[in-house]
């Protein structure tokens, strides 16, 4: 039994359209349509985005395609739909703020590539560059609505062309990669419904000085369009607007200031103390790339990470020996943090670039169901290996590009262990061995993901078992869109400020390039105030990994310096028990000179 036609008039509609498909297609082609572009949608599917837009705005996107840059190109039926959609610029979708613009090539008939459109784009580019002063980083868009060249070409002849012109101009500004500190939008008839400010904030989020004077801004809520934008704005000029000359709301200044956390001057008057603002936004501690509680944790952490990442990139199954039946591993993706690159360029790869990760990501801010949370937590070697195999193969350049990584490590006395935290980046080199586990419900299943560079944070809780063996009790991996590693660029500090800080804590220590076994050098990592004579001397000798391990254990147990440690090990035929027994016997008899100790 067929239900076609029920509830939606399908049968009658099919009858009405029968035999008239050609006419309908011709009619559709003749209808004007307006092109919009949407960016920062990549954390979900195209269909999800279309449904989200329809649900939020009641606007239906048509002819939806994804271009080679990962940008959604779509059409809407009316200019009002296009304008209304641009007003939703910045709305959150799948953890990111959508960037919505109306394009100059705004009809659905392919005219974006026509000679007229090409000439218009060239005209806008010439206008943009003529208004840009690279020497003082100033973009002067004052009174552009009355610019003779633009007016003569009809770019402000109607509300329709005006609304398309500015997004196109900002798109060209992004393509030209203009470096701008100051922008003037004065005398452009900007009113409360105008979207220029929102589009400007998406293009130049870190502009420092902005003039909106001599416009038609009447209400303070106009500045809601730039919420979370212009985060570095220092000076704002809004004089000669109805808001400042006619408004009955005398509190408008405080409301305007509230939208710009770093604003210092409003209409030429100081509204905040610049020194206090700088202090608030300046992190109180100096930036370092490395922190180790002491030399023992430094040695354990660096040797562990060097060996671990080598196997992680080449043969993950060999890492299972480090995990016990109670060990836990999970990973999550966070596409909402940190903020995009300050240059304004998106570093998020195009397409469904997170599809390898989404099915097993344990982001607790996104997953509230207890069963789903527990199903994504791997416990024991078998589950951990399965989850390892769901992740793309990678390459970490820890030794080659140490400045791209930051490491912290400190003791964890409750478990007689240490915590090691690593931050940095990796390259995806190949698809996962097992991309999606069978039975996992996901609309990303079967979709192809692009391989790219990612940023990550990984935290290990390491405990020490019998004979100093390492056990990874907890392993947490956070994967993020790739961003530069400026966060841990070492900042200069006064020598006095470093009192009580070891050289490794100041970020001056390099990871040893000598690979040693993944074992702990001593059962008791606490060493009382070791002298700066480095145990790394043991790594510079021609020792086997097993001999290096034993020498470390003897050195930590006896507190002998490296030279006497090696002598003791050699005389004891590299037998740990014999070495300790010989040391105790000689020490009790007073046969060890004082300079033999660290």
UniProtKB/TrEMBL annotation:
Annotated spans, Disordered: 498-539
Pfam families, alphabetized: LRR_NXF1-5, NXF_NTF2, RRM_9, TAP_C
GO biological process: poly(A)+ mRNA export from nucleus
Domain NTF2 per the UniProt entry, residue ranges: 300-479
GO cellular component: nucleus
Gene3D superfamilies: 3.10.450.50, DNA helicase RuvA subunit, C-terminal domain, Ribonuclease Inhibitor
Biased composition (Polar residues): 501-518
Similarity comment: family membership: Belongs to the NXF family.
Protein name (Swiss-Prot/TrEMBL): BA75_02887T0
Protein source organism: Komagataella pastoris (Yeast)
Top-level taxonomy: Eukaryota, Fungi, Dikarya, Ascomycota, Saccharomycotina
UniProt gene name: MEX67
């Amino acid at each position: 039994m067929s239900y076609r036609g029920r509830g939606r008039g399908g049968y009658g509609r099919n009858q009405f359209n029968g035999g008239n498909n050609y006419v309908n297609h011709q009619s559709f082609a003749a209808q004007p349509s307006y092109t919009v572009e949407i960016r920062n949608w990549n954390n979900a599917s195209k269909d999800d985005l279309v449904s989200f837009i329809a649900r939020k705005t009641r606007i239906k996107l048509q002819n939806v395609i994804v271009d080679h840059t990962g940008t959604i190109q779509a059409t809407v039926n009316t200019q009002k739909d296009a304008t209304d959609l641009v007003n939703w610029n910045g709305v959150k979708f799948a953890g990111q703020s959508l960037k919505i613009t109306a394009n100059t090539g705004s009809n659905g008939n392919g005219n974006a590539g026509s000679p007229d459109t090409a000439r218009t784009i060239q005209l806008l580019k010439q206008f943009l560059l003529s208004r840009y002063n690279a020497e003082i980083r100033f973009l002067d868009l004052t009174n552009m609505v009355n610019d003779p060249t633009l007016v003569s070409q009809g770019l402000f002849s109607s509300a329709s062309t005006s609304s398309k012109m500015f997004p196109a101009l900002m798109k060209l500004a992004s393509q030209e990669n203009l470096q701008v500190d100051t922008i003037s939008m004065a005398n452009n008839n900007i009113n409360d419904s105008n979207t220029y400010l929102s589009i400007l904030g998406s293009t130049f989020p870190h502009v420092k000085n902005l003039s909106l004077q001599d416009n038609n801004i009447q209400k303070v809520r106009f500045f809601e369009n730039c919420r979370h934008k212009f985060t570095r704005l220092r000076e704002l000029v809004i004089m000669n607007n109805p808001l400042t000359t006619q408004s009955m709301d005398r509190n408008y200044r405080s409301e305007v200031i509230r939208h710009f956390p770093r604003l210092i001057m409003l209409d030429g008057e100081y509204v905040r103390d610049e020194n206090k603002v700088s202090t608030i936004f300046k992190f109180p501690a100096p930036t370092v790339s490395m922190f180790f509680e002491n030399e023992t944790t430094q040695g354990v952490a660096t040797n562990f990470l060097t060996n671990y990442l080598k196997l992680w990139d080449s043969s993950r199954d060999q890492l299972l020996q480090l995990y016990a039946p109670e060990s836990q591993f999970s990973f999550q993706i966070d596409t909402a943090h940190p903020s995009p690159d300050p240059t304004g360029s998106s570093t998020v790869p195009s397409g469904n670039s997170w599809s390898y990760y989404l099915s097993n990501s344990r982001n607790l801010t996104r997953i509230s169901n207890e069963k789903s949370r527990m199903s994504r937590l791997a416990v024991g070697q078998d589950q951990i290996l399965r989850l390892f195999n769901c992740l793309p193969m990678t390459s970490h350049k820890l030794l080659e590009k140490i400045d791209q990584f930051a490491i912290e490590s400190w003791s964890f006395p409750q478990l007689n262990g240490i915590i090691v935290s690593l931050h940095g980046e990796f390259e995806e080199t190949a698809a996962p061995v097992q991309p999606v586990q069978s039975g996992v419900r996901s609309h990303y299943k079967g979709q192809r993901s692009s391989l790219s560079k990612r940023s990550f944070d990984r935290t290990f809780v390491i405990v020490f078992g019998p004979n100093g063996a390492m056990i990874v009790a907890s392993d947490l991996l956070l994967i993020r869109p790739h961003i530069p590693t400026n966060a841990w660029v070492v900042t200069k500090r006064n020598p006095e400020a470093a009192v009580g800080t070891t050289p490794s804590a100041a970020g001056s220590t390099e990871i040893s390039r000598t690979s040693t076994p993944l074992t702990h050098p001593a059962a008791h990592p606490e060493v009382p105030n070791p002298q700066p004579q480095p145990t790394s001397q043991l790594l510079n000798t021609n020792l086997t990994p097993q001999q290096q391990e034993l020498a470390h254990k003897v050195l930590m147990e006896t507190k002998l310096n490296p030279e006497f440690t090696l002598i003791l090990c050699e005389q004891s035929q590299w037998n740990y028990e014999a070495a300790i027994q010989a040391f105790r016997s000689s020490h009790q008899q007073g046969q060890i000179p004082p300079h033999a100790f660290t």
